[in-house]
Design a protein that fits this description.
By secondary structure, the chain is an alpha+beta fold. The protein is built from eight helices and six strands. The strands form two sheets. A four-stranded mixed beta sheet has the order 4-3-5-6, with helices on both faces.
Length: 196
């Protein structure tokens, strides 16, 4: 066999030794082949992730979503924290969606005295609150005290900055109230000098 015959069968003449020729790829093609393997494995993993997401439970129905949000408000008021911030939003509102991370940060930062509850204005379950607090725009934040009484709400949103400024004013308005509130000692508490 000459080198031409070996090459025509798909074998490279420089990979031959005394025992025969080894079928293989040149190093340049081997690196491309390895890259193709990586891409293929990523694509198959990605399709598995998509399949898992498709098998995950579907979103809540509007009724279930409304009930969950109403339970969140009831729980927030039951905790007797100093304030609850009720955020009225619409799932179709891009400004509302852009505030999600900021609202989560506000809740994490002020969680010891503040609860934040989301309320979808497009959900019929929130119609009484929408009417009660005169919600005509979204996003709209309503500040509630410990007993659920509305203290203030943000104005008509002209921009993201305008909404964030209104939210900041609502939170700042609680400082005098928070300073005036003093912890009430229960009858179980005894001072160290009481028995002497």
């Amino acid at each position: 066999m000459d080198g031409k015959e070996k090459f025509s069968r798909g074998k490279w003449p420089w990979e031959c030794n005394g025992e025969g020729c080894r079928v293989g790829m040149p190093w340049l093609f081997q690196s491309l082949f390895n890259a193709g393997k990586v891409i293929t494995s990523l694509a198959s993993n990605n399709s598995q992730i998509k399949l898992k997401a498709a098998a995950a439970p579907s979103k809540l129905s509007p009724e279930e979503q409304g009930e969950a949000e109403e339970r969140a408000l009831a729980l927030a008021l039951a905790t007797k924290k100093e304030a609850t911030l009720l955020e009225f939003y619409s799932p179709r509102c891009r400004l509302c969606a852009s505030l999600a991370n900021t609202v989560a940060e506000v809740e994490a930062k002020n969680g010891e005295w503040l609860n934040i509850v989301m309320a979808d204005v497009e959900n019929k379950a929130w119609l009484p609150e929408v009417l009660q607090y005169d919600i005509k725009y979204v996003p709209c934040f309503v500040l509630l005290d410990t007993y659920g009484t509305a203290l203030a709400k943000t104005g008509t949103p002209a921009s993201r900055l305008h909404v964030l400024t209104g939210l900041s004013y609502l939170l700042e308005s609680m400082w005098p109230i928070r300073k005036a509130m003093k912890p009430v000692q229960s009858s179980d508490d005894t001072s160290p000098n009481q028995g002497r």
